[in-house]
Amino acid sequence: MKKAISKYKRLLIFFSIFCCLVLGSYIFFRYFSYSPILKDARWGMALDSFNHVKVYYNGNISTTNGRNITTDGYNIGLKYKCVEFVKRYYYEHFNHKMPDSYGNAKDFFDLNIGDGIRNTKRDLIQYSNPSKAKPKIDDLLIFGGSAANVYGHVAIVCGVTDHDLTIIQQNPGTTAPSRVSLELEQSGGGWKIKNSRILGWLRKE
């Protein structure tokens, strides 16, 4: 009986050590490791691009280093925040200028506007999450604020299937990649991105 208990204890100890190693490895690679390109990245270095519009490295999400203003005086945004990328993308790819060229990322979504209605501050059609409209490539995706980032986040949709979508983003932090996939599902005759922080998306039409 004692031998059986002793064997059980050894198995329990072995299992506990194994779980600690797995958890420790996850924490290390998730929070303390860097991808090769980010490890040697410097502020302003091009990391990625979509439709010839580049994503630049900004380091820590709070880093601010000047403002990007076009030659015709349009405010693109603070270098190299997430807002700067999406506005530069719409300016370069669509020649689109937002009537209101200021505001934090979460402010791009107007909570007082219904699904499929024009957001006049951005001169884009606004869709809620969930929405009757499926997200499309080139849509501007808006994340609400969080405890870690009260200003929210914005990105560009660069790929869509019936089950997921891919975004390209600038200034996600020092270790996060420029492209991330999010789960997409059909819900009640519409479409829902399964991420509670996503407020909705804007579209050039």
Protein model, in words:
- Helices cover 23% and strands 29% of the residues.
- With 205 residues, the chain is α+β, with helices and mostly antiparallel strands.
- An eight-stranded antiparallel beta sheet has the order 5-6-12-7-8-9-10-11, covered by helices on one side.
- Strand 1 (46-50) and strand 2 (53-56) form a beta hairpin.
- The model is unreliable at 21-35 (pLDDT under 50).
- Side-by-side strand order of the widest sheet: 5-6-12-7-8-9-10-11
Q: Extract low-pLDDT stretches.
A: 21-35
Broad structural category: alpha+beta
End-to-end separation in angstroms reads 75 Å
Q: So what's the overall shape?
A: globular
The tally of strands reads 12
The SSE string, one letter per element, is: HHEEEEHEEEEEEEE
Radius of gyration, CA atoms, in whole angstroms: 21 Å
- β content, as a range? 25-35%
What is the element layout, followed by pairings?
Elements: H1 2-32, H2 36-39, E1 46-50, E2 53-56, E3 67-69, E4 75-78, H3 82-94, E5 117-119, E6 124-128, E7 140-143, E8 153-160, E9 164-168, E10 179-187, E11 190-193, E12 198-203
